[in-house]
Amino acid sequence: MTTPETPDTQETTPMTSNRKRWLMVGSLVAVLGALGLLVFTSFTDALVYFFTPTEIQDQSAKMADRKIRIGGMVQEGSLKRTSGTLQIRFLITDGQKDIPVFYDGVLPDLFREGQGVVAEGVWKPGETFIATTILAKHSEDYIPIEMSEEGIAKSKKSLLDSLK
Fold it and tell me: How many Cβ atoms are within 10 Å of 120's Cβ, its own excluded?
């Protein structure tokens, strides 16, 4: 008795155009999702967030033992240097609350009382903020040398003469 031979391969259904379309859409969504995730994570690592002294003191428990950045102004009259060392103490204020800061290291050239500053370190509630990095903020107003008081006076005179 002879039996008909059966092929060893299973029957495959041909890929329909609708199935191809869904496969293409799924692949595109996966690639775009991965690309979006890469872009998002690279931007969030590069952004510099900081909290004000008021925000830190209001959320003290949440901020505890975390590496954070505090931004504000160096309070006038609060800067104390330890002679013979690079250690300094000062207060960062936002006009409402102050946080005492300790830093041991070289300060940026623009650092001074009354100037904007961002300090990075670990917050321990009820203690002095120990900064590991100090960034001095500067004024964004640029006035070229020609725009000194003399330059401004000449510009006003020229403008008034042109209006006559």
Answer: 17
The answer to whether 56 and 92 have CB atoms below 8 angstroms apart is no
Write the pLDDT tens digit of every residue in 12-38. Answer: 667 788 888 888 999 999 999 998 888
Q: Which domains does the chain show, CATH number per domain?
A: 53-136 (2.40.50.140)
Closest listed residue to residue 121, CA positions, set 107, 134, 136, 131 = 131
- 137 within 8 A of 145, measured Cβ to Cβ: no
Tokens of 110: 């623009």
- Report pLDDT digits (tens) over 62-79: 888 888 899 899 999 999
Nearest to 111 by CA among 96, 84, 129, 131: 131
